[in-house]
Amino acid sequence: MTQQQQTAGGDVRLVGISKTYGSFTAVQPLDLTVPQGSFFALLGASGCGKTTTLRMIAGLEEATTGTVHLGGKDITDLPPYKRPVNTVFQSYALFPHLDITENVAFGLRRRGIKSVKKQVDDMLELVQLGDFARRKPHQLSGGQQQRVAVARALINHPQVLLLDEPLGALDLKLRRQMQLELKRIQTEVGITFVHVTHDQEEAMTMADTVAVMNGGRVEQLGAPADLYENPRTTFVANFLGTSNLIAGEIVSTGEDLVVAAGGGKLTLPRERCSAPTTSGGRLLLGIRPEKISLAHADDADDIAAGRNRVTGRITDSSFIGVSTQYVVESPAGTALQVYEQNIERDTRLTPGAEVVLHWNPAHTFGLDAAQDIA
Ligand code: ATP
Fold first, then answer.
1. Total structural domains in the chain?
2. I need a labelling partner for 323 at 20 to 30 A (CA). Which of 7, 73, 109, 262 fits?
3. What is the residue range of the signal peptide feature (predicted)?
């Protein structure tokens, strides 16, 4: 039997779960389903309630309201050790005096299981630490120690592995390696991973589904690409990458919306607008910097018909290797960021140049500024 078959559980479902400390609400009533076998990330800035949410799934924190379900079973009243759930923390919490084998075997030994060798060997192989079995934790790098912590949790065959900023203590390069490593491990074991992070790149690299949290609630939930391409709030638009947000007014409400913004008339597909779509309505029109192309004003006639256009002047230009990043100010005073890739040194535009920014209207999104919290 494969480990995947042994540990197959069910969806994690949070129903109206909330947490208050005195008069402070850390997590507002939350309904959330984490599909079985998915890699799910809770993403948000410090203090937004992601760890508290994770701890309520683990049973380490009692929910003020609501229930926690696993595979259709209500586990709200089960103590942590009776839940088929394990947690990996940022501080690996390995036993310093035990070698790696004994650290990984710990959960089995505690349950009185004597012959642990095969299971420990399999786990060490899974996390690619077979050659380190007899070392003590202090003889391993941070990334290796974190992999031991993952192996130690997985050996208990949890239905869900909870990871609380597990890569927070690692330097950037190792962090990136471990993100791919954890993703590989999750695919291999096939159980549900719920991962807490404040790093949007990390969440997008690893997770199938990301819940973006802000002020104790989930602002938006979706696949990384959907969140990035179609953010529904300014918080999400700004937290996941960089967005240009231009204040505008709807001037026509046909099949596509037409918005007066940045000194131009810009097309916004109706389905990409999360603000009310009535004529005269005000909204924020969003476009990612890398979706914008730049043309010198003298070449404006060459721009294909049907593209959104805003004129402006370059006020700043920086070459950062993979792209050149421009700041362009429109006559209306809006500063827009533009990232262009693969431009030759001699064709880069310089500050002062009069330009036309243009992009495919399909990449434009519309946000309701009035709806934002925090
Ligand atoms: P971080 O990334 O900094 O860990 P987080 O998003 O995980 O942040 P939580 O740890 O869930 O945030 O905390 C959410 C809020 O609840 C914070 O404002 C925190 O100060 C508060 N909080 C957490 N634990 C307690 C507690 N035991 N008593 C009072 N307030 C608490």
1. 2
2. 262
3. none
